Amino acid sequence: MILQTQNQMTLEEFLNLPPGEGDTTYELVDGKIFPKMSPKFHHSKLTRTFIKIIEEWSQERGEVCPEWSIKLTRQKRDWVPTPDLLYISHGRLPANWDENTACPVPPDLVIEIISPGQTFGQMIAKAKDYLNAGVSRVWVVDSQARSITVFYPDAAPQTYMGDELLVDSIFLGLEFPAETVFQMAKIPKL
Question: Count of alpha carbons within 13 Å of 122, Cβ hemisphere only?
Answer without folding.
Answer: 9
